[in-house]
Amino acid sequence: MTADLIARLGKITGPRYVSGAAEERYLYSMDQGTMPPAAPDAVVMPKTTEEVRQIVMLANKLKVPVVPMGAGLVLSGLTRALKGGIVIDMKRMNRIVTVNPASRYVVVEGGASQGMLKAYLDKHHPDLKHSMPDAPPVATLAGNICIHGSGHLSVLGGSHSDMLNGMEVVLPSGEIIRTGSCGVSGGWFSRAPLPDLSGLFLGWSGTTGIVTRLGIKLFPKYRYNDVLIFVAEDPDLMPDMISRLTSVQAAEDMTPWMTPKPDWARGFLHINIAWGGHTKKELIFKRNLLQGSVREYIDRKIAGFLPLPPPQKGRFLKIPSPDLARFADLRRGGGFEYVGAIMAIEHFPDAYRAGLAIAEKFNVAYSLGARIIGAGHAMMFFFAYAFNRADPEDVKRASDALEATNTAALEIGGIPWKAELPAQKQIIEKMDPDTFALMGRIRAVLDPNHIMNPGNWEKD
Amino acid sequence: MQPIQFEPDLCIRCETIDCLTKCQYVSFSGVEEARSEKLKINERRHSRVLEECLTCYACQEYCPYDNNPFYLLVERQEEMGILPAPKPIIEEQLRMMAPKGKIAPQAVTGVVVDMCAFPMLTGCIRGKLFEGAAPVTGMDLFCNIMWLHFAKNSTIRERVPRIIDNIMNCCLGDAPGREMVCFHDECYGTYTSVARAYGIDVPFTPVHLFDYINGRLNVLKDRIKPLNTKIAYQRPCSNRLVPETDKVLDAIFEKIGAERVPRVYDRENALCCGGVPRAQQRDELADSLVEKNIDDMLKTGAAYCVFNCPFCMATLANEVAEQGLMPILVSDLVQIALGE
């Protein structure tokens, strides 16, 4: 069966781009997180939408599961082949198709990476940029958007899924559809005013279709950029501080962070605030707005901005930030995972305290933080745990801590982001039953043979 | 703990109250108001000066009686809990800059050059100018004088003796009287002016960088190729503690053919680089100080903006470079003149 599958896939993509070799299946069986491996029967790398369509048609015919994968960096095991089948690695579909500078959007293929787009824009459109997540540059744009990722322009533009203008998607049936304006006109400029079908593929963990092309919003790239680090000690004041800082709508990115390492940072709550300006005057004007918004706390001497001489700012202006990657390797051994929970700003103090308590209980290396989404509309609060993959006890500790964190996040009122399997089940438990039933009916319509990433978003 | 060396009667008899009337950042209606505020400070009463002070160290230089007005002011700020910057900013930096306890005795031969907490500048110790010199650096050698900007005399008292022990035990082979060149005015100010005023014993002999360079230029005079250029000097706050060294700098500049152009904001009238007010959350004031400094330099037609303080340089280097002046440290400028 597997040999036959591989031969038939090879006819679609060419034999170089399909494999059932043990070592390939091993590599594709896991990501860097704590979820146990689940190997596919085959891995295939299509080059075109048509090849994706043919692969899906074949899988449908054979009733073989299909797992779409970008760079495989989700950390929560969403691209593991839980029921075997085919992992469709999208990395060969990596073209930057077009940039529209007037309406500020780019059209990319489903496997194009964050780093490729950044490099392309730097070279060809130096006055434009996209919102980069703090992921390795090889992370794909499609993958990050489909998990409702966030990044360096999220205060300005919201979640990365909010920056999506439309998609080309291969449905499990093999049909190719287009959501957003590109479904009607030649442009990829908006999801409005049509019924928003993009939502059928956002947050579904690859269970509804395979994204082969996307239109993504771009933003002005400033000549001058700056960063402030606001420091406070009382977590209960953080929601108001964040609310004030976002109220002036000057920042592009705002990332609170709390970490026990280095020692000097323990117990302090920091908010990195990045913004830009076309001129120095604009830069300073926005800085004054930001500083003015929290002047009351500064005058009370209970919070303030860390003095950062210009040479020290470069590290904090790097995109993506190197700091999380440094933390990820804290325990060596290549293990790193975090619970990112989307939650309301007012839950910041509870989330912070829960994170500290869990880290202490499970004795895990931790880093807590958040990315503010929109003008203080929500945040992705993260509880990151580094572990040594070669040490089973360390993996178990981190895994237990993650499960406890998911529970705590849900109890606080947040929702685990890009939830791994156990967290999906916890979410389903809390979800309105009719809503969950609707999810099932939608999947049944789109994917009657239940081939798309099976095992995810299921009760049993 | 010894109190700051200070004689209140000197202030009472003082006719000019230069420490306050010459201040560039706090205004007074006249000598009498300045006197009144000074007496409040001396008598541990609240004075608006304690709130408004930029902590630029200048009053230390202005006082004609060396009566330590600035050290006393900082002492009062701390006693009265008047923080020049928000508490978390001070507390976090106190931890960040604390001695790490990691220094070990090292066999340091030749001239020891204390680079304080600026390991990134050890590359400056090179060439004929520093031939045979050994730079030492690290947080365990950080002079800690910066806490004068943050109302933390207690930290200076606590940490400086420990740093002096580290210098003696780990860098100077526990040889009393041995010389150590201080690359930064702050270190020299700590081991001379601050130590005297706070009653801290310094068993080694601190040498100011200017004295060292000036001496080396005497030895290397045949190598000097005069620069024949104009330079604008950004005098740092810590040089206020050791103003006698400014004359040595003039001698250096003369030897290397650098004309220290007259600036409005030089010498006794030097203006803060703008770094400290940012820590005090006074960015708009800092912006205006940067602007005043650079406008002033540009008017002189200088080719270089010369620093001796790494922090001033970090604060202003980009700004002056954007305006067409070359930012440079004194030692690097001298090395250019030496053809290095």
What's the gist of this structure?
The complex is a heterodimer of chains A (460) and B (340). Chain A is α+β, with helices and mostly antiparallel strands.
Q: Structural class, from helix and strand content of chain A?
A: alpha+beta
Q: Report the top-level CATH class of the largest domain in chain B.
A: Alpha Beta
Number of discrete helical segments of chain B: 15
Major β-sheet of chain A, in short?
8 strands, antiparallel
Q: Taking all residues together, what is the mean pLDDT of chain B?
A: 96
The major sheet of chain B is characterized as: 4 strands, parallel
In helices, the fraction of residues of chain B equals 40-55%
Rounded to the nearest angstrom, the distance between the terminal CA atoms of chain A is 27 Å
**Count of spatially separate domains of chain B:** 3
| CATH topology descriptor of the largest domain in chain A | Vanillyl-alcohol Oxidase, Chain A, domain 3
CATH class of the largest domain in chain A: Alpha Beta
Question: Mind telling me which CATH architecture of the largest domain in chain A this is?
Answer: 3-Layer(aba) Sandwich
Work out the radius of gyration of chain B.
20 Å
Q: In percent terms, what proportion of residues of chain A is strand?
A: 15-25%
N-C termini distance of chain B: 47 Å
Mean pLDDT of chain A: 94
Could you please describe the fold and organization of this structure?
The complex is a heterodimer of chains A (460) and B (340). Chain A has 460 residues and is of the alpha+beta class. Chain A folds into 3 domains: 90 residues, Uridine Diphospho-n-acetylenolpyruvylglucosamine Reductase, domain 2 (2-Layer Sandwich); 128 residues, Uridine Diphospho-n-acetylenolpyruvylglucosamine Reductase, domain 3 (2-Layer Sandwich), CATH 3.30.465; 196 residues, FAD-linked oxidases, C-terminal domain (Vanillyl-alcohol Oxidase, Chain A, domain 3). Chain A has 15 helices and 19 strands. In chain A, a hairpin with a 4-residue loop joins strand 5 and strand 6. In chain A, helix 13 runs parallel beside helix 14. The longest helix of chain A is centred in the C-terminal third of the chain and has 21 residues. Chain A starts with a helix and ends in a 14-residue tail after the last helix. With 340 residues, chain B is α/β, with parallel strands linked by helices. Chain B has 3 domains: 72 residues, no CATH class; 99 residues, Rossmann fold (3-Layer(aba) Sandwich); 125 residues, 3-Layer(aba) Sandwich (Rossmann fold), CATH 3.40.50.1860. Chain B contains 15 helices and 8 strands. In chain B, the strands form 2 sheets. In chain B, strands 2-1-3-4 form a 4-stranded parallel sheet. In chain B, helix 10 runs parallel beside helix 11. Chain B is globular and about 55 Å long. Chain B starts with 7 loop residues before the first helix and ends with a helix.
